[in-house]
Every structure is written in C-alpha cells, then in structure tokens.
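Homework help board

Subject: predicted structure for assignment chain

Our instructor gave us this sequence and asked us to write out the predicted structure in token form, then describe one feature. I got the tokens but I'm not sure how to describe them. Can anyone check?
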Amino acid sequence: MSADVNVVIVGGGLAGVACAKRLAGKPGMRVELIDRAGFQQFQPLLYQVATAELTSKDVRFDLDRLFRHHPSVNVRKDDVTAIDPGAMTVTLASGDTLTADHLVLAAGAQPNFFETPAPASTRSRCTASRTRCGSAAGCSPCFRTSPRTRRWSTRVR
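My token output:
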C-alpha cells in the first residue's frame, strides 16, 4: 500500500483551482489549497458588474463550496509567509507549516492599470460605480438589477 501524496497549492485563482480539480479525484492524493481570500473572482467580468449586467455573486466563487464534494481537497484561508523549496514546506501566517511532496505556486499577478486606479478593479468598486451611475441617471440600481424586472430594461449593445 502506497502512502498518500501531499500536494500544496498556493493560490486559488484559475490555475490553482484547475490544478486542485484535476488532482481531486485521483486516488492517494491529498491537496491543500491555500488562498488569502478563500474565493475566486473572475476579473474579466468585473466591468459587467459595474454596468449592472451581472451581480457580484456571478463573478465570485467560494472555494470551500467549489470543493465540498472532494474530501481529498482541503481549502485553507490564510496568507503564505514563507516557502522553502528545498525542504518542500510552506509556512502560513497562522503559524502552521505544511510539508508537501509537490508544491504548486499559482499565486497569480497583481493587475497594474498603468498606475491609474481603475473603477472596475474590485467588486466593491464595481458595485459603488453602478450605484453612483444609477443615482446620477435618476434610476434605481435595484430596478435595473432585479431579475423580475430585467426584461423591461433597455440594453444597448
């Protein structure tokens, strides 16, 4: 009988989640998925949140929920403070140190919009922009995003 293979994945973005999903069903694999926020946010659609085409829930995916049917994947919401590739360890802000047989570094990137603060760079900014625009236009943001009344909204594409 072979021992379990421990895989530590740093980052719950597209690459980290894809890796964890691929390993989730493999026998003998134990996966620790570490992410600072505990959710995945699909940034290319944030402009649609700002324009009330989507709600913020449509672009945010909870990692615990995503892997709830995969007992071999453990999602941890924590910050990584140190990585020792020689010892194959990852130290977390909580003080825990994880030892792995394989380390996957998928921490992503920090967007830089030419050092210009982008109005649609976070969900909260998108929602705030949508509210401000709706108020300035004299219409209720709730009316524009309500699923029941969405069919009456005029969309120009």
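Reply (TA_rk): Your tokens look well-formed. For the description, you could write something like this. The beta strands are 5-10, 29-35, 39-41, 60-62, 73-77, 80-84, 89-92, 97-99, 102-105. That's the kind of observation they're looking for.
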